[in-house]
Design brief:
The protein has about 1650 residues and is α+β, with helices and mostly antiparallel strands. About 40% of the residues lie in helices and about 10% in strands. Strands 1-2-3-8-7-6 form a 6-stranded mixed β-sheet. The chain has a 4-stranded antiparallel β-sheet with strand order 15-16-17-18, with no helix packed on it. It has a 4-stranded antiparallel β-sheet with strand order 19-20-21-22, with no helix packed on it. A hairpin with a 3-residue loop joins strand 24 and strand 25. The chain is elongated. The chain starts with a helix and ends with a strand.
């Protein structure tokens, strides 16, 4: 790859430091995003690529690693492949230069058969077989003619095919004059789109020497999945088949464009978490075949280093060389790291080497390599504890959905934190702060090698054996890493440390460390025994990763042959002794009393084997005797030495024997020979080593078959040969998927020929390890029925392995199109794969950019889903479900995915799997903060019905109902959770302490609901779940689940939308009509029957029979008209296609929809479940509405309905009142449904809990919020209680609610967390509550029951004066330390509380309290006695708000203005009238308050300016008395008279605007409602007149005597409910609708 790096640096201007070698003959480049955008936009490539500023070389190297996901802003990674033009000059026959043909040999055109149909497939097979047999016969019997058409240049073919397949043209780079200007651009591509399963190209570049393909960088490949996350494919064969299906789709797309895929490997297939595959074509195989071998040899040499130059890097060769001492320990360890996939510079997956010494002594004390470094640091006791705890948790299991703990000892061999600590001296400070610890503390890093080795539980890195600069610090405040004192320099330490690694002691025991790190002690019983169970190998994770612990072999690693072993340089000495010596020796035992070969041994197998073993000594003695006897019997006299003279020199003769010979021993005496064995000598050692090595290679490494060298003949290359090579590589890849653990010894750079031989041997012996659907395909693709000699012995293929037979089993040679055909028997792909693949392609090809596109995108997918689910099997659901989960996690598609896709997917999954896989995504959709387009769809009752049916009632109530209720407060889900987390603590107990009311979370008491749900975004597997019920499958049915205290039966609940007239199945194919039908909302008519199993909170269920409330089985009562208006508005918005919903409108729709759904759900669930889940959670939500100072600020609003929420007499609501309005509305609706017990037994109890005094005098935010919400809720309850019930609970209200609130309100010992504002709000609301109670019970009951309460409230005004009187000073003198006011045990006064009391109980508050209670006590507030008794007041009216004046008209024609807040008159206006004007009959003030109209008995109307008193206009409106005057907006005046007329006037027009006349009776009472006049006569007739449109006919109705008795005297309209309030002459007031 060195040539490619140099070419990229030269042609593209990318610095070498920004390049790194990647997998599969590619280079990874670290480039700016702007530079890449320039390539995409086909702008001229700059001469140099920008370099990263302020980033070190080590950091850039780290960014190039696949395991690093976070990159600096503005930078990205791309992969670059290159082809040298000089190696593409050969001709390529049968390629795209020929008349265009399909890859299966058929010409493109309308006549091509359809392989998806049986007839088309059989036609294709017949034509292909005929053509292939003809070509075979022609090749054998016909002589080629010289005039045949030559092949096209491979260079032009590759350029054209790449442009077509990747959808872009070549862009010229470089300024080489030898490159023609027009040669840098290929013809325009056929299509700008790339097949979804092909990795797209960012750009295609061409220089004078090379072609470049720039593609997106892919973090994960199929090799990573099989190496680091094998559990992702282990659960289902369908996932493997689908990956292969996508691969064949990509290969077919390439072949159709005339592009060969190359020698595919596992690294060429990029994958994501959802198993979406994209093929990266291997372009390096296009280079000239005879030169490609040299190229691969060069790549291997670059990857392996100098010690492995020219040899393929496979574990078998490495092992043999290391065992026999031909390579060093360091080289062997680095080779194993490379085979395991470890990458230098990758902080997550850097190569590891063992720590061999601890540096505590000169040249160190050797470490025990039989134990892992983690075990040496942590100790056996700690590891046993970790393993036992996780094992017990694993055996015990857990609740459904919880992540189980997997028994393990260690987590990793080398973590990223340890890596950066090792290299802290050479790593930038910012990088260390982001990985090790956020704060820079240089003294916290190990300062010496001894400390480093003792601190870390991880293994060493190669830099401590090779790089002296790793000790030198680049930080001014961090010293260099200290080395032991016995080394004078860093270079010396590196040399010594390296020699220690190569020492005899390490070599003898290194195989134990290899077993722990790469071998058999990583899994199984050996791992447990060695306390080396690694978490990454046993946790069964399904998320993709590019690093992890890799087991290279599963057999014990052989030991290295150290030293001379069994081959000493000198032959052993043989001693010949006399019989006497022999007998003496036999009697005395071994020579010198010892056995020489057991005196000491350095060899690992000789040591300890013979010592103390009598059988071994006996065998050795018998062998020596046999040798001696053999020597004596063979001796002849001629061979005997002479009696005198020195004997010949014999190296086997001992000095003792020579002395005896000189002494004249008998030459004929039989002699005995002894062999003295050297220490450690083992005659069987070499044989044992050979046997172990052979067993390890054959069993652990699965050694390949004998290599068969390819033939020397190299005929011209054709495109059909490339296609056959692609299919052979595909067959090898299929087998490698299942044999991946056994083929790791080959290494990533293995040739296709070597991979095929290794796979073939495994297939012949272990074919059953391959999935059953693929066994036949592997046998056919790899031609297992033919011998290797037949296939490879005499092959003349320039590429590929062999040539397929023209016809095999009746079929032509395999091709992607043929294998993808549903009629092909080779690979039985499931029938739904094609539909599933189209669904996924649609998913990936149309990303949503906004909310509208997200809706259209999901709708398009929904249209395909029905057809897909009809044939989908559970294995297919495992593949489909991650895409649905992805849609539900995207902000732009989450709502629409839940709305459209939840119902069909849940119907296919079944309730149990729906709860397991879809519950968490649904919760995530509800919890998403911020504005989501169309969010209100999830709160409609039709969607709620689907949730209940598909999930089950209990999961819905426990997990989703809280989120449905939370939206009533108008807050985001995340904000609500934070607020709720601080509200209270969960508390269960007696009835006076409401169960779980204080829980901070809205999840209720559904015990089976898991506290945590698993994340299945990385993969789905139905096989790892608990056993299913017998009556449940993946398609239909309601699972029974655990029997809860309450059992729910679903009656008429169907899967149709309760808010739509048609169900999803009945919708038409028209997209608009389907969508509108699905989003239409009407009242639901579904029934949810409830069988109650426990009593309600109180005794209100005593009269219920069978626990079934009638209201639960019928439609809820008519809702508020505002809901109907909101619903109408929503339908109008849906019909207007051009109008977009803004955030404010949709938030209002969301709130109204949720409120309506909660009401509907309350009616369906019945009283018990509604009280337990809905009312209880609503009460908790009410407290959150007033949490925080920002919720307690007064607001000014024109909504008249808010006066019923905030307070009675002071219409000053706070922000919390606005938020609490929907919550209170739903609570009161439930109370209307199920009666007063909901209020008295549940709400009142909860209020008493909220306001009850705490254990301490300190008032926290939760208690402050509880006081406010409790008082507001109490106001609502008082309104809805009957008089009898109110009097019954009045003592409890006083004792448990009002008095605790007043104690906190008037206490000088406790300050409010939110200050005087919160105390002021509480005071106003408490005042309103007390006034409301007094108003309800009447004057007599107030004196009897409310005296103490009122006295306690008004005592708050005297707290500060009393305290000042006690201390004898002003407020500044009221320091802490005084006694409490009511209780001597109270704490000292709080200065902050005193300041709050001074601000709250002021004159304004005293005035606000005085007015209502003066009225309730019965005394007049004020009496105006300054009028003339001879001229009584005959007309009174009020000035409009915000003015407070009262206008009175007296008999002397004088208008007087009175301010009730001040004594005396404001002013008076005298009307200068003549004697014929008569008396004042009525007054009317304009809505603006600027004019007042005065009606007289003579029919005259005077119009005055209220500011000046000037008469603006006088006219005679009627001929007789004026009965009534009313004003309206737009200066409109309406008058009625005894002359039977009703006239509408404009103030500026002297003539009447319109004149109505009553035919029989005069209109003596009328009122205005909008643009209508509702008038009544003494004949009890009600008429409706138009105020602005005279053409509208008058509607007159007579009141029946049943509804109204007596004579109508007065009339009023209640605008909110559109009700009539009628008064009769008999004193009865009637309210009519």
């Amino acid at each position: 790859m060195e040539w490619l790096i140099a070419s990229i640096e030269r042609d593209l201007g990318i610095d070498r430091k920004q390049l790194a070698v990647g997998e599969g003959s590619q280079v990874v480049a670290y480039v700016p995003v702007k530079w890449l955008n320039g390539l995409r936009e086909r702008r001229p490539v700059p001469s140099s690529c920008p370099r990263p500023e302020g980033v070190g070389e080590d950091e850039v190297t780290t960014f190039l690693q696949r395991s690093v996901s976070k990159l600096p802003a503005g930078w990205t990674r791309v992969s670059v492949q290159g082809l040298r033009k000089s190696r593409l000059r050969y001709p390529l026959s049968g390629g795209p230069g020929s008349p265009p043909r399909r890859p299966d040999g058929l010409p493109r055109g309308d006549g091509a058969p359809d392989l998806d149909s049986f007839c088309g497939f059989m036609q294709h097979v017949a034509e292909q077989n005929y053509r292939n047999l003809w070509r075979q016969a022609r090749g054998k019997h016909a002589r080629p003619r010289g005039g045949e058409r030559p092949g096209t240049s491979c260079l032009e073919t590759v350029k054209r095919s790449l442009s077509r397949a990747l959808g872009c043209g070549f862009l010229q780079v470089g300024a080489d004059p030898s490159l023609p200007r027009d040669s840098g651009h290929s013809p325009a591509p056929v299509s700008g789109e790339t097949h979804p399963n092909l990795l797209p190209a960012e750009a295609l570049l061409e220089s004078a020497q090379a072609l470049y393909v720039v593609q997106p960088f892919c973090r994960y490949s199929l090799r990573d999945l099989l190496t680091y996350s094998p559990a992702k494919l282990a659960s289902s064969h369908a996932k493997v088949l689908f990956v292969l299906f996508q691969l064949l789709q990509a290969m077919r797309a390439c072949h159709r464009q005339g592009l060969a895929c190359g020698s595919l490997t596992l690294a060429h297939l990029a994958l994501d978490e959802r198993l979406c595959a994209q093929l990266r074509v291997s372009l390096s195989d296009y280079e000239r075949p005879e030169e490609a071998a040299g190229v691969r040899g060069e790549e291997v040499r670059v990857a392996e280093g100098p010690e492995r130059c020219g040899r393929p890097e496979e574990l078998r060769c490495l092992l043999t060389d290391w065992v026999h001492g031909r390579i060093s320990n360091f080289s062997y360890l680095m080779g194993l790291n490379r085979l395991a996939g470890r990458r230098p510079g990758d902080p997550n997956y850097h190569p590891v080497l063992p720590w061999v010494v601890d540096f505590t002594a000169p040249y160190g004390k050797f470490r025990d390599l039989r134990k892992s470094k983690f075990r040496l640091n942590k100790g056996d006791k700690q590891l046993d504890f970790t393993y036992e705890m996780t094992r017990e948790a694993f055996v015990a299991g857990g609740q459904a959905g919880e992540q189980l703990h997997v028994p393990h000892h260690i987590s990793d061999v080398l973590s990223d934190i340890t890596y950066y600590v090792y290299k802290a001296r050479r790593t930038a400070r910012a990088v260390l702060c982001s990985h090790v610890r956020s704060q820079w503390e240089p003294n916290e890093y190990p300062a010496s090698m001894e400390r480093m080795q003792s601190w870390t539980p991880d293994e060493c890195i190669p830099e401590f054996y090779t790089d002296p600069t790793i000790f030198q610090s680049i930080h001014p405040d961090m010293p260099d890493l200290d080395i032991p004192a016995w080394c004078s320099s860093y270079r010396e330490f590196i040399d010594v440390h390296r020699k220690l690694l190569e020492s005899k002691e390490v070599s003898l025991n290194l195989h134990h460390w290899l077993d722990l790190t790469f071998g058999c002690k990583l899994t199984g019983k050996e791992a447990v025994k060695a306390k080396n169970v690694c978490l990454q190998l046993v946790d069964g994770h399904t998320h993709l990763t590019s690093y992890g612990v890799v087991q290279l072999f599963d057999q014990p690693h052989p030991q290295r042959l150290v030293g001379e072993g069994g081959h000493p340089p000198e032959a052993p000495a043989v001693a010949r002794e006399t019989a006497e010596r022999r007998s003496l020796s036999r009697g005395a035992g071994p020579v010198n009393g010892t056995v020489p070969e057991t005196a000491g041994s350095e060899g690992p197998w000789g040591a300890g084997r013979d010592c103390g073993d009598p059988s071994r000594e006996e065998d050795l003695e018998e062998g020596t005797e046999a040798l001696d006897s053999l020597s004596a019997s063979d001796k002849t006299p001629e061979q005997s030495p002479p009696a005198s003279g020195p004997p010949p020199a014999d190296p086997r003769t001992t000095p003792a024997r020579a002395g005896r010979a000189r002494g004249g021993g008998d030459p004929h005496e039989p002699e005995e020979a002894k062999i003295f064995l050297p220490e450690g000598f083992n005659p069987l050692q070499a044989l044992e080593e050979l046997e172990k090595l052979s067993n390890f290679v054959s069993r652990g490494l699965y050694g390949p078959l004998p290599d068969t060298a390819p033939g020397d003949c190299c005929p011209p290359l054709s495109f059909s040969q490339l296609l056959q090579r692609d299919m052979q590589a595909f067959g090898v890849l299929v087998a490698e998927i299942f044999f991946a653990p056994r083929l790791r010894s080959l290494g990533p750079a293995a040739l296709l020929h070597q991979r095929y031989l290794a796979v073939r041997k495994l297939c012949l012996h272990h074919l059953r390890d391959i999935a059953a659907p693929l066994q036949h395909a592997v046998a056919a693709l790899l031609q297992l029925h033919r011998g290797p000699e037949e296939l490879l012995g005499a092959r003349a293929q320039p590429v590929g392995l062999f040539e397929y037979q023209p016809v095999s089993e009746g079929l032509p040679p395999p091709s992607p199109a043929q294998l993808l055909s549903p009629c092909c028997p080779i690979i039985p792909f499931p029938s739904y794969f094609d539909t599933l693949h189209r669904f996924i392609c649609t998913y990936r090809s149309q990303p949503a950019a906004d909310g509208d596109q997200g809706r259209d995108f999901v709708f398009c997918l929904w249209q395909q889903l029905d057809q897909l689910l009809e044939r989908l099997q559970p294995e297919g659901l495992e593949i489909l479900l991650p895409f649905v989960l992805g849609l539900m996690s995207n902000d732009l598609t989450a709502v629409y995915a839940a709305w459209y896709l939840f119902e069909p997917i849940a119907r296919a999954l079944g309730p149990r799997n729906t709860h397991r896989y879809l519950l968490k995504p649904l919760i995530g959709v509800y919890e998403k903060p911020g504005y989501l387009c169309g969010r209100f769809y999830l709160y409609t009752d039709c969607f709620v019905v689907q949730l209940i049916v598909r999930l089950g009632l209990q999961p819905f109530l426990g997990s989703l109902l809280p989120h449905l209720l939370q939206v009533l407060t108008g807050q985001d889900g995340a904000e609500e959770s934070q607020v709720l987390g601080a509200t209270a603590e969960d508390e269960d107990g007696a009835p006076d302490s409401p169960p779980s009311y204080a829980s901070g979370e809205l999840k209720d008491t559904a015990e089976h609901v898991p506290s945590g749900l698993l994340d299945f975004s990385s993969g789905i597997s139905f096989s790892d779940q608990s056993e299913l019920a017998d009556n449940e499958d993946f398609q239909d049915g309601i699972f029974p689940g655990e029997q809860e205290p309450e059992s729910v039966s679903v009656g008429k609940l169907s899967d149709k939308s309760s808010n739509s007239e048609t169900s999803a199945e009945d919708r038409t194919n028209d997209s608009d009509s389907r969508e509108r039908a699905s989003l239409r909302s009407l009242d639901s008519n579904h029934d949810l029957k409830l069988t109650e199993g426990f009593p309600l909170l109180g005794s209100q269920e005593e009269d219920q029979e069978d626990g079934l409330e009638p209201a639960a089985c019928c439609t809820p009562p008519a809702s508020d008209p505002r809901d109907t208006e909101t619903l109408t508005e929503r339908h109008g918005l849906e019909d207007e296609d051009d109008e977009e919903l803004n955030e404010g409108k949709e938030q209002k729709i969301l709130l109204d929809t949720a409120c309506k759904t909660v009401k509907w759900l309350s009616a369906k669930l019945g009283p018990t479940v509604s009280s337990r889940y809905i009312v209880r959670n609503l009460l908790r939500l009410l407290t959150t509405c007033y949490f925080g100072p920002e919720k307690q600020q007064f607001v000014m609003t024109g909504d008249p309905d808010l006066s019923r929420v905030g307070n009675i007499y002071e219409r000053r609501p706070v922000v919390g009142d606005l938020m609490a309005k929907p919550v209170l509305e739903c609570l009161m609706y439930v109370a209307q449904l199920y009666g007063e017990p909901v209020l008295t037994y549940q709400c009142l109890t909860y209020i008493a809990y909220l306001v009850a005094p705490g254990n301490s005098w300190r008032l926290n935010s939760r208690k402050e919020t509880g006081l406010l919400s409790g008082v507001v809720l109490m106001q609502k309850i008082i309104v809805y209680l009957s008089d009898t019930t109110l009097m019954d609970v009045l003592p409890k209200i006083n004792q448990d609610v009002l008095l605790p609130v007043l104690e906190a309100l008037t206490s000088p010992n406790t300050s409010f967390p939110s200050g005087a504002q919160a105390r002021s709000v509480l005071c106003v609301k408490t005042l309103s509550l007390i006034a409301l109670v007094c108003l309800r019970i009447g004057q007599e009951m107030v004196t009897q029951h409310m005296s103490d309460t009122l006295r306690r409230f008004f005592a708050g005004f005297s707290v500060l004066p009393d305290l000042r009187e006690q201390v004898g000073g002003v407020s500044e003198d009221l320091v802490a330390g005084g006694a409490g006011l009511w209780d001597q045990n109270e704490p000292a006064w709080d200065p902050a509380a005193l300041e709050e009391l001074e601000k709250v109980f002021n004159l304004e508050m005293a005035y606000s309290a005085y007015i209502p209670f003066n009225c309730l006590i019965g005394k007049p507030i004020r009496i105006f006695d300054g009028f003339d008794s001879r001229n009584p007041i005959i007309a009174v009216t009020l000035m409009p708000a915000p003015q407070c004046s009262i206008i009175t008209g007296s008999a002397d024609s004088i208008l007087r203005f009175i301010d009730p807040r001040q004594p005396g008159l404001q002013h008076e206006f005298k009307l200068n009238t003549n004697a014929t004007a008569g008396l004042i009959r009525c007054l009317a003030v304009s809505p603006s308050g600027r004019t007042v109209a005065v009606g007289f008995s003579s029919g005259y109307i005077y119009l005055l300016d209220t500011r000046t008193g000037l008469i603006m206009k006088v006219w005679q409106a009627h001929e007789s008395d004026i009965l009534q005057l009313k004003t309206a907006e737009g200066n409109v005046l309406v008058s009625s008279s005894t002359d039977h007329s009703l006239t509408i006037w404009k103030e500026s027009d002297p003539k009447p605007f319109h004149h109505y006349r009553s035919p029989s009776d005069p209109v003596h009472a009328f009122d205005l409602h909008g643009n209508e006049i509702v008038a009544g006569t003494v004949a009890n007739r009600i008429g409706i007149y138009s105020l602005l449109d005279p053409t509208v006919p008058v509607a007159i109705n007579k009141l029946s005597s049943e509804n109204f008795r007596g004579t109508l005297t007065s009339l009023g309209i209640l605008p909110a409910k559109r009700l009539l309030l009628l008064g009769s002459d008999n004193g009865v007031i009637r309210l009519l609708a």
